[in-house]
Backbone:
């Protein structure tokens, strides 16, 4: 059977929100012509839902009664996708019409790619080097890519997934609440010898770490630090074993405690809150770190 031509109707855009009301207006402008949009809200307590109703009325909205985390929320939407492709898009990304045109062209050019990713642009217009080879193999060096290339990791902020390939790979591992779920997914794709393709001519603005505000920004920073280090330890355990994860926890904790002294002497509330979150995440060895199965026991059907 001849493959369908790639067009806007072949792509479902998936956006996970959590206290992201400030992002919706800019995000919505670029999505007005896209017919398939799913927004999953992780129990926001700001104006996110009303902004979605106002600015993205054509989107299918799924409202969670609690924060399920990034990977689990995306999985809810991915299981409802009926189009050949799904585009995961952070709410702090600002797409425009050329972005989707270029993405559609890339999907047609690389039909065997499981993932296609763009260059992410920082606030100042500089490229965010959010792609590399798995660090367990070698460290990426050199300037930014200037042409399409295969890589081992791309950031989940903007990631086009080929759904037929994802049936083999599986969805996000929901052990990761926030952070490293994209790294885990890319690692599994890489190990399955599927293609992750970066296409530098595709560009999208990414206002990194701006997707969450809410009523208590210091609490958000604490949670950011907590979940980042917890997920880092989970990833280490999954791919390198419990002893390696424990060693990382101890060395990172020592460094965090040393860093705490100057943070207390010259406090910066945001950075201090994030550091305290990291320390709490390092001290708390929760059930996930005790029970996470190693990779060789993880099946795609479990995701």
Residues:
């Amino acid at each position: 059977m001849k493959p369908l031509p790639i067009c806007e109707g072949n792509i479902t855009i998936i956006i996970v929100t959590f206290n992201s009301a400030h992002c919706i207006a800019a995000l919505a402008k670029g999505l007005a012509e896209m017919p398939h949009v799913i927004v999953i809200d992780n129990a926001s307590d700001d104006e996110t839902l009303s902004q979605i109703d106002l600015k993205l009325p054509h989107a299918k909205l799924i409202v969670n009664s609690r924060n399920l985390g990034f990977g689990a929320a995306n999985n809810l939407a991915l299981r409802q996708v009926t189009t050949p492709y799904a585009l995961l898009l952070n709410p702090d990304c600002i797409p425009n019409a050329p972005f989707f045109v270029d993405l559609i062209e890339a999907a047609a050019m690389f039909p065997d790619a499981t993932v296609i990713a763009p260059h992410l642009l920082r606030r100042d217009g500089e490229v965010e080097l959010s792609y590399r080879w798995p660090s367990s193999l070698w460290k990426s060096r050199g300037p930014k890519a200037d042409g399409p290339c295969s890589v081992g990791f791309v950031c989940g902020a903007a990631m086009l997934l080929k759904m037929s390939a994802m049936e083999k790979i599986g969805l996000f591992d929901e052990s990761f609440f926030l952070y490293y779920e994209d790294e885990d997914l890319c690692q599994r794709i890489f190990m399955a010898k599927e293609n992750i393709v970066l296409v530098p001519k595709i560009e999208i603005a990414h206002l990194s770490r701006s997707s969450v505000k809410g009523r208590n920004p210091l609490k958000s920073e604490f949670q950011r630090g907590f979940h980042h280090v917890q997920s880092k330890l989970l990833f280490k355990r999954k791919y390198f074993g419990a002893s390696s994860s424990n060693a990382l926890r101890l060395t990172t904790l020592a460094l965090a405690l040393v860093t705490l002294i100057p943070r207390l002497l010259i406090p910066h509330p945001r950075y201090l809150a994030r550091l305290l979150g990291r320390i709490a995440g390092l001290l708390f060895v929760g059930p996930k770190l005790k029970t996470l199965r190693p990779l060789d026991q993880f099946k795609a059907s479990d995701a």
The longest helix spans residues 217-240. Residues 144 and 154 are 13 Å apart (CA to CA). Residues 9-206 form a domain with the Spore Coat Polysaccharide Biosynthesis Protein SpsA; Chain A fold (CATH 3.90.550.10).
